[in-house]
């Protein structure tokens, strides 16, 4: 599957009231319980962990964004205590049928004091060639699809970022 045009690029930050030395984003992400995941957004349905075909850790996230259920197959690309990059060819179940998008999810923290750090949650998604062909067959211009998808995805990221930060903070303070 080939990556084509960018759909969304959204980034939001929130404060974590814990020293950066106690934060470990990959450990948090790959040990997140289903309840904790669901508590981070009303759009979150389920989360699970597995190993991808190349042996890398993987998290499977199910959520509903803009009324469309998504199954995200996130594999770790960068995995450091203060920086995690996950990528996924995600299934989106749109009213017009199942399509695939490519998502790059980046979570990072930087120290702002001895007792606080700033968490940043960045999500960048791209249409795939298959998705563009599907839209074309249905007579849906890419710009129209993008205009409908972008606000829902950006709002979702805006709402979940402080809840992810609070969850990461709880995990850091337990460690």
Element string (H = helix, E = strand): EHHEEEEEEHH
Second-tier CATH architecture: 2-Layer Sandwich
Rg calc: 16 Å
Count of runs of 4 or more consecutive helical residues: 4
Shape: elongated
Q: Regions with pLDDT < 50 over 5+ consecutive residues?
A: none
CATH topology call: Alpha-D-Glucose-1,6-Bisphosphate, Chain A, domain 4
**Major beta sheet, strand line-up:** 1-7-6-5-4-3-2
> Helical percent range?
25-40%
Instruction: Give the biggest sheet.
Output: 7 strands, antiparallel
The figure for the number of domains is 1
Mean pLDDT: 94
Terminal Cα span: 40 Å
Query: Given the helix and strand composition, which structural class is it?
Result: alpha+beta
DSSP E strands, number: 7
CATH superfamily: START domain
CATH class: Alpha Beta
Features:
175 residues; alpha+beta; 7-stranded antiparallel β-sheet; 31% helix
List the helices and strands and how they pair.
Elements: E1 3-16, H1 25-29, H2 34-39, E2 44-51, E3 57-65, E4 68-80, E5 83-94, E6 97-111, E7 117-128, H3 129-138, H4 142-174
Antiparallel strand pairs: 1-7, 2-3, 3-4, 4-5, 5-6, 6-7
Organism: Spirosoma aureum
Protein name: SRPBCC family protein
Summarize the structure.
This protein has 4 helices and 7 strands. The protein is α+β, with helices and mostly antiparallel strands and 175 residues long.
Describe the structure.
This is SRPBCC family protein. The chain has a single domain, classed as START domain (Alpha-D-Glucose-1,6-Bisphosphate, Chain A, domain 4, 2-Layer Sandwich), CATH 3.30.530.20. The chain has four helices and seven strands, in the order βααββββββαα. The protein has helices spanning 25-29, 34-39, 129-138, 142-174, and strands at 3-16, 44-51, 57-65, 68-80, 83-94, 97-111, 117-128. A seven-stranded antiparallel β-sheet has the order 1-7-6-5-4-3-2. The N and C termini lie far apart (40 Å).
């Amino acid at each position: 599957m080939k990556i084509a045009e960018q759909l969304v690029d959204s980034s939001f930050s929130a404060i974590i009231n814990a020293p950066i030395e106690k934060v470990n984003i990959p450990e948090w992400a790959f040990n997140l319980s289903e309840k904790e995941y669901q508590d981070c957004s009303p759009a979150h349905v389920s989360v699970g962990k597995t190993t991808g075909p190349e042996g890398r850790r993987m998290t499977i996230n199910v959520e509903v964004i803009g009324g469309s259920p998504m199954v995200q197959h996130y594999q770790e690309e960068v995995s450091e205590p203060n920086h995690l990059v996950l990528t996924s060819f995600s299934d989106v179940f749109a009213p017009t049928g199942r399509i695939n998008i490519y998502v790059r999810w980046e979570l990072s923290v930087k120290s702002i004091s001895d007792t606080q750090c700033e968490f940043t949650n960045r999500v960048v998604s791209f249409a795939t060639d298959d998705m563009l062909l599907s839209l074309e067959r249905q007579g849906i211009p890419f710009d129209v699809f993008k205009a409908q998808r972008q606000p829902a995805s950006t709002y979702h990221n805006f709402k979940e970022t402080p809840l992810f930060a609070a969850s990461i903070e709880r995990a850091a303070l337990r460690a």
